[in-house]
Amino acid sequence: MIIKQLNIGIIGLGTVGTGVIETLEQKTKILKKKYNLNINILGISAKNKNKKRGFNIKKYNWYDNPLDIIEIPNINIIVELIGGSSGLALKIAKKTLTKKKHLITANKALLAVYGKQLSKTAKKNDVNICYEAAVAGAIPIINILENRMLSENITNICGILNGTCNYILSKMDEENLNFETALKNAQNEGFAESNPFDDISGNDSAYKLVILTNLIFSSNFKIKDVYIEGITRVSNIDLEMANKLGYKILLLGISNIKNKVIQLRVHPCLVSQSSLLAKVKNELNAVITDGDMSGKNFFIGKGAGKKPTAASIISDIISFDNSKKRKLSNTMEKEATFKKANMLERKGKFYLRMAVLDKPGVLADITSYFKKKKISISSMFQLENKISGYVQLIFVTHNILEKQLILTIKKIEKIDKVKTKVNLIRIENNL
Amino acid sequence: MIIKQLNIGIIGLGTVGTGVIETLEQKTKILKKKYNLNINILGISAKNKNKKRGFNIKKYNWYDNPLDIIEIPNINIIVELIGGSSGLALKIAKKTLTKKKHLITANKALLAVYGKQLSKTAKKNDVNICYEAAVAGAIPIINILENRMLSENITNICGILNGTCNYILSKMDEENLNFETALKNAQNEGFAESNPFDDISGNDSAYKLVILTNLIFSSNFKIKDVYIEGITRVSNIDLEMANKLGYKILLLGISNIKNKVIQLRVHPCLVSQSSLLAKVKNELNAVITDGDMSGKNFFIGKGAGKKPTAASIISDIISFDNSKKRKLSNTMEKEATFKKANMLERKGKFYLRMAVLDKPGVLADITSYFKKKKISISSMFQLENKISGYVQLIFVTHNILEKQLILTIKKIEKIDKVKTKVNLIRIENNL
Do A296 and B301 touch (CB under 8 A)? Predict the structure, then answer.
């Protein structure tokens, strides 16, 4: 039996890069036995050579300049794990592909911005880009979309795409922690970066949504095409009220198509407690596909972390031979054009919360605006406990055009007894 | 651009076979555009030529003898959809492989019995067996196990593998239907066969469990190695009591490995309502993998039906070129040997229900046996309503060896005031 030699270079040795090397060290024998394969790491590189890592860097050839690794003649694959949507990561990606090496990356920002361009370069050079680890960690959603569901007309993809946000919302909900404490816990547990902006702003989810959308629809959407709202406006009262109303609040990325118009959005959603998604807690991610053949498929697993992400990368490494005919490189450069839907044209139910003065007539003033605009309310609550001296009012609407609601909300916010901006959270049915 | 020609024959034109042809007819253009591919059906065959079907059979070459289709010289793939663990299906499979054609099949019974043998034949003839549709319908679990999770050491695979049973249990639970009515509904809705024996007996789940287990562990387990219990002993009282105790009752197939000992079992389980599995209702299937890298991954989708199953078959057809280096054909013939665990050696919690005479002392008699054998009870209920004149007693145990419990149950059943066999349902934690 001939043992196949696979020569790789690894650039970026943070949590994930270290996880890949540790795992390859631990599993050398079993991988050889199972796949007749030796995976040889011919070069490694990272920003800081002297950082303490879980493996002995002296066992590997260190390159101060990561671009030099790509020059190693018999290298097959470059694994890029430094992150960032441009700069060095982009340079590495471009050079890898033009030097006719395969690229494996977990870099969602890079792919969301330069995915189409890089896939054209890959195609031209007859190599592949594999990026299972870039979206939803251990969930093999990229492989499923590229190699399965081949006759499926997917009209909707939706998911919990950011483990940090899901962890924070879970902890706020279940342990009644406030946002700051929940975030700090997430950081302590390694589920959030020291700078959590990309996570809590919804940007990270938007990167992943753009990648999934472009893969499914062969489109070329960009981050700017996504309506993005983070989780910072979700408060403990909202989570508590959602529970009372039979919902959970989740940060979802949603992309759906109707009549060649695609809507891409990332925002907190109220999701029915009877939905499977409502059970996806803490750092777990979830992806739901909805298609004409199979209906809904749910994929749920760890969205981040050292080992789950390393597992996806190693699967990409081992199967890279199989991936020669991967759909992505084909579909991604055949660009389809779609219109982008405007959020204001979306119809749905809404949860609204506002703080008002405890004075007679305030409710009548607010509801008269709803009546005038024919906004039908399905439930209304007034919380017993005041917050900062104000009464909290909660309304749940029936289906209504977002545009129409926004106009009414602007008017309501002008009522002098209404003391805060209206906190609007969309209700997502059919999940 | 060269359009690739893929020539297939389809044997078996029931629901699934018809679904495949209808879909290929409807999607000819889009598949050609997306994959540069023409899928040509060169021959069809089924038991009954004159049955009314959703497509015009006159458009295709009909073969009275299905084996003749395999002789068509330029055919690439035979799709076998007649079912059955031996007989004609086995003949078709063998001939297909020895004639060096690829085999696509949804036949779980055949694969559970002859999978290892057929995969050796496939390997010898350098062709593939693809069988995504044989397990869990639209859920791409076979592909995931073959092409992803390649560094994963899976120690546990578990699932709701039979849509009929899940549908029946859901309806009994949520609509309080009795077993017979729920089964009839399942049949009317097309989720159960007219002869439901294989489904409700647990055999169908066992076939699928054997296939998954042998794929993961490169083992060669047979149906006889699986402990099998169907759903007929689950009553509406049990479902109701399970709800009160915070559980749902599901028919699960479970295969787990510990110290090279594998336990394979299919039986009703009490699963915590907080588990994702508890939300998998009606005809949905679910598979959970648990591994050292990614932890738990959940895959949930339609387990049966015309379109979901056709979707898996068509993905197998389109991707058959990619599958040349599939892991299965390698792993399945490299046989690993494991010991089989005895159910009696399993430790767990149990739910027990028994009908007793409403006489003083009966509870003391029963509990004295528990005490004698040091079986610790975590909760006990006596239902207010008698059934057929008997009082229903329910016990939930703490962790205990099954062997020890069974011995005690035998003694309890001999108490003359105990009027029925003890209904034992295992509680499955960690799901």
Answer: yes
Asked whether residue A104 falls in the same domain as residue A213, the answer is no
Q: Are residues B249 and B176 in the same domain?
A: yes
Q: How many CB atoms lie within 10 A of CB A112?
A: 25
Count CB pairs under 8 A between chains A and B.
Answer: 162
Interface touch A274/B279, C-beta < 8 Å? yes
* A5-44 tens-digit pLDDT: 999 999 999 999 999 999 999 999 999 988 889 999 999 9
C-beta atoms of A279 and B279 within 8 A: yes
Q: A260 — alpha (psi -120 to 50), left (phi > 0) or beta?
A: left
Domain assignment present for residue A47? The answer is yes
pLDDT tier at B332 (50, 70, 90 boundaries)?
very low
Q: What angle do CA B293, B297, B298 make, to 5 degrees?
A: 175
Instruction: Looking at the structure, tell me whether residues B116 and B179 fall in a common domain.
Output: no
Cβ A307–B294 below 8 Å, yes or no? yes
Residues of B known to be catalytic: 208
Q: Which residues contact A87 (CB under 8 A, 6 or more apart)?
A: none
Residues of B in contact with A291 (CB under 8 A): 311
Query: Are A186 and A237 members of one domain?
Result: yes
What pTM did the predictor assign?
A: 0.95
Angle (nearest 5°) at CA A22 between A19 and A24:
105
Distance from the Cα of B299 to chain A's closest Cα (Å) equals 5
Quote the CA–CA distance of A12 and A92 in Å, as a whole number: 11
Round to whole Å and give the CA distance between A42 and A152: 40
Strand A347-356 versus strand A423-428 pairing type:
antiparallel
**Best mutation target, B135, B294, B320, B333, to test chain A (most A CBs within 10 A):** B294
Would you say residue B424 lies in a domain? yes
Say how far apart CA B80 and CA B324 lie, in whole Å: 19
Element (H, E) at B284: strand B284-291
Q: CA–CA separation, B40 vs B34, rounded Å?
A: 16
Is A208 noted as a catalytic residue in this protein? yes
Measure CB to CB from residue B294 to each of A292, A308, A331 and give the nearest one.
A308
Is the domain of A111 the same as that of A228? no
Per the structure, the count of domains in chain A is 3
Query: Per the CB < 8 Å rule, is B293 touching A300?
Result: no
> How would residue B412 be classed by pLDDT, with cut points 50, 70 and 90?
very high
In chain A, the residue whose alpha carbon lies closest to the alpha carbon of B326 is A322
Q: Which residue of chain B has the CA closest to A148?
A: B315
**Confidence class for position A321, pLDDT limits 50, 70, 90:** low
* Residue span of the structural domain in which A386 resides: 344-426
pLDDT of residue B326: 47
The CATH number that applies at residue B370 is 3.30.70.260
Write down which residue in A310, A341, A372 finishes a domain. Answer: A341
